[in-house]
């Protein structure tokens, strides 16, 4: 029988920082880290070499492997508790900020850039905020430490080597199929390793940290074993791309314009997420051949464009309560229209009620950085409510950033974020199942690299103090 003190499923930031903080605090127990993908040094995407997306099997190298999906997108660390999910609501905002500051120092130790974007220029920030208020938007100040897509890989390689040198066993190419449950206590995990062999790994403490890629799987595990959870929100939206000249002031003053609005008539929350000055639009592939759009931001390589996500939050409770499936269907329909590729359309064509043609993109000022995106009509797949919210939000942003709602502004679809299944936990990250803890974006409590890393640090401290050995007390 394979037996460890701690089994961690998923080598994204939350899983990594659980193991790392344990080692930093002198933990002597045995730790195994199970990851579906490859070590960071072996993760390769053919598109980075100028080739087309090959829909790599058995998983996409951008979304799966050591360091997870976030490190291979834009490599940005948000240094404010105001962004990054709902974890501050669980543990308190001051504690969350202290943990961010602590975790940031660890990233610096492993080579993150010391420069912080989005600080200073207070008078210019005030001017931008004034415009945002006039447009009915909220501007969230958030300092950013930009590691960069290519630099982040080196940082996480150093962390990977540190974990290996510290005695953490890392099982790559292994898929967790289920948890081992005995008398409402989690005893470990069922795993299929890289050779296709089934293994039972027992552990006193099991940490599930499967990221956005594993959100649907974790939702099924919760339903199967009656792990207390609730359907949360799912984000459906587009990736917007404009010329750098349009975003010049925002890029230089804030670096990332975290604007939030509730546009009429539906009043859904709509926000800007993952802004990449001089960046590149990218494609990611999820299970069932679902192609979704994202953005990369390199430290050294720059384009003529800035891209960002506009995400519309949707909540479902009665009678339908499967938001992840809903978002997947939207993505599948969009993929169908694009023949399996990402779909792109000019904003002006949307307002004019026409599709965009490939030859029109070639004559535009804004040239797509995702070169194999297919010109078409995203409105034929995007739900009316989401599309209306996005259009009205773009009009509001144009009051803050003149030219943002230009005819040639590009909208790529689908941009989907699967965070929806929110695990019910206490402040020590105890679930309703003894011995089981769920972290990061798949838990529904975090969004992004920093807050997921913070949750890992918090998990490690709970293990060391013994506070994370119990069962969540029902407080509803």
From TrEMBL:
InterPro entries: FAD-binding_protein, FAD-dep_OxRdtase_2_FAD-bd, FAD-depend_C, FAD/NAD-bd_sf. Coiled coil: none annotated. Keywords: Flavoprotein, Oxidoreductase. GO terms for molecular function: oxidoreductase activity. Residues 151-231 form the FAD-dependent oxidoreductase 2 FAD-binding domain. It comes from the Bacteria. This is FAD-dependent oxidoreductase. It comes from Candidatus Limadaptatus stercoripullorum.
């Amino acid at each position: 029988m394979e037996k460890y003190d701690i089994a961690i499923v998923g080598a994204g930031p939350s899983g990594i920082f659980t193991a790392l903080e344990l080692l930093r605090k002198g933990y002597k127990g045995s730790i195994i880290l199970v990851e579906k993908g490859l070590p960071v040094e072996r993760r390769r995407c053919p598109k980075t070499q100028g080739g087309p997306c090959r829909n790599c099997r058995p998983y996409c190298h951008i979304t799966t492997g050591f360091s997870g999906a976030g490190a291979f997108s834009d490599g940005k660390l948000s240094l404010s508790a105001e962004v990054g999910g709902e974890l501050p609501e669980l543990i308190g905002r001051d504690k969350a900020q202290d943990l961010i500051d602590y975790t940031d120092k660890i990233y610096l130790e492993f080579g993150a850039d010391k420069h912080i974007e989005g600080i200073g220029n207070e008078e210019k920030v005030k001017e931008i905020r004034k415009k945002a208020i006039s447009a009915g938007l909220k501007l969230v100040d958030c300092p950013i430490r930009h590691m960069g897509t290519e630099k982040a890989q080196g940082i996480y390689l150093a962390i990977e080597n540190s974990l290996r040198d510290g005695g953490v066993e890392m099982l790559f190419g292994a898929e967790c199929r289920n948890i081992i449950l005995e008398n409402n206590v989690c005893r470990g995990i069922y795993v299929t390793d890289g050779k296709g062999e089934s293994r039972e790994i027992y552990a006193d403490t099991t940490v599930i940290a499967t990221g956005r890629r594993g959100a649907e799987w974790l939702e099924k595990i919760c339903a199967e074993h009656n792990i207390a959870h609730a359907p949360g929100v799912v984000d459906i939206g587009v990736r917007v791309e404009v010329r750098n000249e349009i975003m010049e002031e925002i890029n230089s003053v804030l670096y990332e314009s975290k604007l939030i609005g509730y546009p009429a008539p539906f009043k859904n929350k709509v926000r800007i997420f993952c802004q990449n000055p001089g960046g590149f639009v990218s494609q990611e592939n999820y299970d069932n051949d679902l192609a979704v759009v994202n953005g990369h931001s390199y430290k050294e390589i720059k384009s003529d464009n800035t891209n960002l996500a506009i995400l519309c939050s949707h909540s479902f409770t009665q009678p339908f309560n499967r938001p992840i499936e809903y978002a997947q269907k939207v993505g599948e329909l969009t993929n169908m229209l694009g023949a399996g590729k990402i779909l792109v359309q000019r904003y002006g064509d949307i307002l004019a009620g026409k599709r965009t043609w490939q030859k029109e993109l070639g004559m535009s000022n804004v040239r797509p950085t995702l070169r194999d995106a297919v010109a078409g009509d995203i409105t034929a797949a995007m739900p009316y409510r989401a599309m209306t919210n996005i259009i009205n939000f773009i009009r509001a942003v144009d009051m803050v950033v003149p030219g943002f709602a230009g005819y040639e502004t590009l909208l790529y679809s689908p941009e989907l974020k699967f965070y929806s299944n929110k695990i019910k936990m206490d402040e020590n990250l105890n679930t309703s199942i003894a011995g089981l803890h769920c972290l990061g974006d798949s838990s529904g409590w975090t969004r992004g690299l920093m807050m997921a890393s913070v949750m890992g640090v918090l998990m490690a401290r709970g293990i060391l103090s013994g506070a994370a050995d119990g069962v969540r007390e029902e407080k509803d």
